[in-house]
Amino acid sequence: RFSGIDYEIIIIDDGSPDGTQEVAQQLEKIYGSDKILLRPRAKKLGLGTAYIHGMKYATGNFIVIMDADLSHHPKFIPEFIRKQKEGNFDIVSGTRYKGNGGVYGWDLKRKLISRGANFLTQVLLRPGASDLTGSFRLYRKEVLQKLMEKCVSKGYVFQMEMIVRARQLGFTVGEVPISFVDRVYGESKLGGNEIVSFLKGLLTLFATT
């Protein structure tokens, strides 16, 4: 409120059973519907379509995308904005693997999978960014629209393709170290199927970029 930044918060909820919509409705009453925009959908339709759905309602020139379970802390948003202004970047991506970034609340297996995924991606695609699988990012709105038109991946590999396509199209990417704290309630969706999908997607990108 005191940052001098003109902002709106768009909440996309795909019929989750955890009371997200009720909480968002309360926030809307407190802060006003010009600041809190709840834009629910009847069922789970995927992350990429959620981005497109949210973009339809975004009125600003930049869009920050983050998880709503506070795994991504809002305190980093001013740093994203500072970084963007500093280098006039098209994308500013949060990184867990650079500077004082880190991950908290993951077991060793999850850390190894994430590190391994990033290492494989670095070796095969040389994307010029240190964290390919995170989703806490700031995008120039028109850049996000162009990337959404190009990206075909779903699931875990989607975030990686966004950065790879951005480099391919000549967009600039800056990074801000972030602390990622795993959700306190609920479970991660990363399982065997997602890992297989990631490897298939990685090989597809390697063959097509």
UniProtKB/TrEMBL annotation:
Catalysed conversion reaction: a di-trans,poly-cis-dolichyl phosphate + GDP-alpha-D-mannose = a di-trans,poly-cis-dolichyl beta-D-mannosyl phosphate + GDP
Organism taxonomic ancestry: Eukaryota, Metazoa, Chordata, Craniata, Vertebrata
One Gene Ontology cellular component: endoplasmic reticulum membrane
The protein's assembly and partners: Component of the dolichol-phosphate mannose (DPM) synthase complex.
Family statement: Belongs to the glycosyltransferase 2 family.
EC number(s) on file: 2.4.1.83
Keywords, comma-separated and alphabetical: Endoplasmic reticulum, Glycosyltransferase, Magnesium, Manganese, Metal-binding, Transferase
The protein, known as: Dolichol-phosphate mannosyltransferase subunit 1
Primary localisation category: endoplasmic reticulum
